[in-house]
Write a structure and sequence with these properties.
By secondary structure, the chain is of the alpha+beta class. The protein has 2 helices and 5 strands.
Length: 94
């Protein structure tokens, strides 16, 4: 699976997802540094790396996933992310 971008949340912020070696695991980055993701996250989190990494998500199904990172996502944001990843043609269902 190649890296891809999706819009998430009420503000429709653009995020970039980079697949990792572990099946269905992705690093989440702020895709457009010109947008306010970094400022938004910095106001809610203290340790957002300079590279814009907001966290890592491992998706098992559209309602089953693990998230770890400094990104301040709502539960609805994470459900939306998981649902969009599951719909990707290269998603490997377990």
């Amino acid at each position: 699976m190649k890296a891809f971008e999706i819009r998430v949340g009420q503000g429709q912020r653009l995020l970039k997802f980079e697949p990792q070696d572990k099946v269905n695991q992705f690093k989440i980055y702020a895709a457009d540094k010109a947008e306010d993701w970094i400022d938004y996250e910095q106001s809610r989190s203290v340790d957002v790396p300079q590279d814009g990494l907001l966290g890592i998500i491992t998706v098992y199904s559209d309602h089953h996933f693990d998230f770890d990172g400094p990104g301040a996502f709502t539960g609805q944001d994470l459900l939306s992310i998981a649902a969009q990843i599951v719909k990707h043609p290269q998603f490997k269902a377990e």
